[in-house]
Amino acid sequence: MATHEVTFPVTDPAEILKLRAGDEVTVQGHIIGIRDRTQIRIFDQGVEPPMDLSGAFLLHTAPNVRKLGTDSEGRGKYEKLCIGTTTSARMVRFTEGLGSQYGVRAICGKGGFPDEAIEPMQRLGMVYFAIVGGAAALETTQIEEIEEVAWEELMPECLWKFRVKDFGPLTVGIDAHGNSLYREVQDRAKKKLEEIYARL
Amino acid sequence: MTVVTTDLDAAVSDAAAHLYVWALKDIPQDLRDALGAAAGRETSVTGQRVLQTILKNVTVAEDEKNLVCQDTGIAVYYCKVGEHFPLHPARIYAALKEGTERATVEHPLRSNTVHTLTRENTGPNVGYRVPIVHWDFVPDWDGLDVKCVPKGSGSENMSFLKMCVPADGVTGIKKFVLESIVGAGGKPCPPGIVGVGIGGSADYAMHLAKEAIARPVGTHNQDPLVAELEQDLFQLLNETGVGPMGLGGDVTVLSVHVEHADTHMTLNPVAVNYQCWAARRASAHVAADGTTSFERDA
Hints:
The structure holds 2 protein chains of 2 kinds. Chain A has helices at residues 14-17, 36-44, 95-102, 118-124, 136-142, 181-199; strands spanning 3-8, 24-34, 57-60, 64-70, 76-82, 106-109, 127-130, 143-150, 159-174. Chain A is of the alpha/beta class. In chain A, strand 6 (106-109), helix 4 and strand 7 form a beta-alpha-beta unit. The longest helix of chain A has 19 residues, at 181-199. In chain B, helix 1 (8-25) crosses helix 4 (89-106) and helix 2 runs antiparallel to helix 3. Chain B folds into 2 domains: 2-24 and 69-152 and 280-295, Dihydrodipicolinate Reductase, domain 2 (2-Layer Sandwich); 153-275, no CATH class. Chain B has helices spanning 8-25, 29-41, 45-64, 89-106, 153-156, 169-184, 202-213, 224-237; strands at residues 2-3, 76-82, 132-138, 144-148, 159-164, 192-200, 253-263, 268-275, 282-286, 292-295. The two termini of chain B are 13 Å apart. Chain B is an alpha+beta fold. At the A-B interface, helix 5, strand 9 and helix 6 of A face helix 3 and helix 6 of B.
């Protein structure tokens, strides 16, 4: 299993294609926080997201923040308190749209995506990164600043732009070549269950 | 830590406010030990990566005085009320709610509570019937024990109930727990504590499963038959290879806790409630004069 450092947003698709399921990845640059209600607004209510998602790394999150004030254009400025990652599986149905309509290249969350994400990720050159769920104290130290917040009325399920440094370690859970660690683990576990049931 | 106050409403409310934040920041020693032991026996590369990150995170939370996990959960309290405790449970409930609200605003903590249909936020981690409080009443006693278990949604979403039939027997119980945990995969943040409730009725089995996850790792059911089931399930679940965060490995669960109740001759309910690796819990004892002492498991 290789280790990589990738800076987001990516412009070269090869940056994604070099990643293989099981590899360890550290991320630099900018990442976008997104969650259930944010994606329901984009896809079910048809509202265009006010941030560029092309080449982006999306993080399934809803952070603990403190509001510091408002800028001249009425946008809130926030300070990080505790930023961690939520269960991805609830949001799997948005994968294809994020890739095909907005050019998203990576989705990061915890717990994995079901198998329905494998085909669109392969077709669109996307990856799923597994983060360690619950390890929010550490994750918070790797987020340098909340640079932008859109759709504040969905607090805490807004669209967040974070600048990160050495974000990780992440594990490639699903790569752009049709491999999924989750599918492999589930297939092995189901075979094992049959063995166990025969003994009970 | 011991705090003395003469105002019982304030004592209970202060206890709740302190417990909620304490539980979120400082995970119990039994969990830390179990996670350390897990890292000692995990042989997969990804599993080791996850466990080392978890251990590092626990230290960072301590150093930075930050929350272990960003999910401040749904506030759940277990109260044991002495029959001579001078504050009525209705007032205890109001004080717990006030304390939860105050901790959320003052820290501040993320507010998670929403109306279940409109999904609109209902306030600082309180709402209609939230916090959730479970009650036990103790004769010949004048104290109050409060245990706070903030429950994260990642693990709570991995709750399962099956009304097995008597002919399914213990094998049926084991199969259901196994298929539930394998199906849950990485979603509930394994390796954690699997709570299993058996017997009683449908709702009571789930209640028992929830009680089971709030027990310290290393404790066993007092009934030897049930304790044996805990041990069997622990071994079987760790054979499945689901591993830390569902990425594959030797350690799928840290502990299995089973609570049971006698049941109807035609019932065989099995409930599973998962608790993530950051199994948060903290307790306080409030005496009749308002003196409060904080202990991990009061």
